[in-house]
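Lay summary. Proteins are chains of building blocks that fold into shapes, and those shapes determine what they do. In this project we predict the shape from the chain. Here is one chain we studied, written as its sequence of building blocks.
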Amino acid sequence: MILAMRRVLRLVWMALLLVTVALLSALTAMRFAIHGREVSVPDLQGKTPTEAHRLAGEAGISARVESNYYSQTVPEGRILSQMPAPGTQVRRGWEVRLALSLGPQRIAIPAVVGSSERAATLNIGQRGLELSSTATIQVPDAVPGQVISQDPPANAKDVSAPKVSLLLSGDNTPQAFVMPSFVGQPLGTVTNTLRAAGFSVGRVTLATEDSAPSAASIIIGQDPASGQKVLAGSAVNFVVR
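And here is the predicted shape, written in a compact code that computers can read:
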């Protein structure tokens, strides 16, 4: 009996050993397979786009120029920077993003403040520059659509990229609000609330002619009615008792 048990235990240990070896072999194979699909990103900086594409292809990855910047040190037409950095381990087929040097800044930044958006855009494009972005802000007494600020400023030196952003004046149309209900509230309290919000009290009508309206009069009707849209600065008429 003891001899038989020893044989069984020996078989069990052998089976466990074989399973362990098989698992280790599988893990090792997976590791080699994973690392076999990884490549090291080559150094593309200082290369021409053609050379960069060739070196990337030889490494099993691709490259794409996605931006342009001025540089005092890297000659025009050469790769200024790359992402990921050289030596980074990536999967095969990965795309490396490149920035191309335009050389030193040679184009003067035009003055477009005071121009219309269309005129500023044309001026920027004719200089070989790009319109980067536009934003709008409401400015009292400003002409809607007029450029009120630019970045970089006119004639700026040592700018990083051939792009100009514009800040435009917006439409000065009064802001619209939804009229709340003031029914049941004292006229004096509502008057103060409206004035603080930029509105005014228009005509006040007394429901009965026994006395004149007072600050303590209670509102029983209003025009514009609750829920209607009104412009800032509008007058509100009330019926009180």
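What the prediction tells us: Helices lie at 2-36, 49-58, 117-126, 187-196.
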